[in-house]
Amino acid sequence: MAESIFALPVSLEQIAALIRRMSPEDRRALVKLAPELREAAMQTKRTIEDARESVAQLRRELLQELGGQPLGPDAPFLEGMTLGQYLDLPDAERAKLWDKWSDVDLHELEELEIKPDAVSAR
Amino acid sequence: MRCLLDKVTARHIMEGMLAVVEERIVTSAEFSALDLYQRAPHQDTQLFILPHTETLLRRLEHLPRYNVLIRRFLAATTVARPTRYFKRWARRLREYGFTKEDADILALATFGTTPAISALGMHVVATFDQPMMNQWEAQQAAISRRLGYMQRNLPAPYRHALLPQVQRPEDILGS
Q1: B75-94: per-residue pLDDT in tens?
Q2: Could you report the predicted ipTM of this complex, rounded to two decimals?
Q3: Of B165, B61, B22, B46, whose CA–CA distance to B115 is shortest?
Q4: B91-125 confidence digits (pLDDT tens)
Q5: H helices of B6-139, where?
Q6: Is the CB of B50 less than 8 angstroms away from the CB of A104?
Q7: What residues does A76 pair with on adjacent strands?
Q8: What is the dihedral of CA B121, A27, B94, B101, to 10 degrees?
């Protein structure tokens, strides 16, 4: 958690919570008043190369855990399909199957009573 | 930061993992989702999944070759559970034009918790659902007021629950 800003009795989290409650018009007005916000956002934009390296690292780790062998397109998947058949489906078809295989109604789950001192998302 | 992966984002992470080990083309959505998944632990971000995602992964568990991926995915994520007032807030959100599934995810991000029930709500929902993001943004002020009205009569800590941000995976973490 960030410390309170000097000379202001509020924390960055409190400012962020305030911004999240603002209307889109107020947010745009805020960026006009403080263009430094836009510049800071642009400076932190991650490059595609960074992301590629991150995914390449994941591939190395997964293959190592799989003993250097990919699963293979003939590996069994769900409902009699092979992995290759599943991955060859269009995205919309895979989404339908995923929905079918993961059908859960959240309203049927018990609502948990949480601790009074639980940390809210500030 | 607590980040709830919607069902599609979780699917893109799993399919992205399968694509990279099979040396298939990784789509841009899978790429963004995998990048978030990879970077989250290094940026003090805890990833949460829906109970739906856990259900599907358990269906794959009996296939030993997938265990490496499933174990890894489940170890890096936590299943979010609804808390008291989840259903009530989900019903309110449907009045703002969200589908039942979208309203449920958004409500879980406000009235959801960890298995240890030590935290309330998520800071952000990761999604590729642009209509949901647009609707959330357009109705933000009204939804925020509605939550405030509802919270007047709620006990702590529920009265302190906040609305999440709703963002694409590539917009969630900084560099």
Answers
A1: 899 999 999 999 999 999 99
A2: 0.83
A3: B46
A4: 999 999 999 999 999 999 999 998 777 789 999 99
A5: 7-21, 28-39, 51-60, 67-75, 86-94, 100-110, 130-138
A6: yes
A7: A82
A8: -60
Q: Are A91 and B131 in contact (CB under 8 A)?
A: no
Hey, how many other C-beta atoms are within 10 angstroms of the C-beta on B143? 22
Whether A83 and B18 lie within 8 Å, measured CB to CB = yes
Residue A20 lies in a domain: yes
Distances (CA, A) of A71 to B57, B58, B101: 16, 18, 33
Q: What pairing do the DSSP bridges indicate for beta strands B165-167 and B124-126?
A: parallel
Is residue A114 one of the residues assigned to a domain? no
A83, closest residue in chain B (CA to CA): B18
Q: How many domains does chain A have?
A: 2
| Interface residue of B13, B14, B123 to substitute, partner A, most A CBs within 10 Å | B123
CB contact under 8 A, B34 and A55: yes
Segment A80-104, tens digit of pLDDT: 899 899 999 999 999 999 988 888 8
Is A114 within 8 Å of B120 when comparing Cβ atoms?
Answer: yes
Residue at a domain's end among B79, B103, B127: B79
Per the structure, the complete domain to which residue B86 belongs is given by: 82-171
Partnered with residue A38 across adjacent β-strands are: none
> In terms of residue numbers, what domain contains A82?
48-102
Do B151 and B165 have their domain in common? yes
* Contacts with B66 from chain A: Cβ below 8 Å: 71
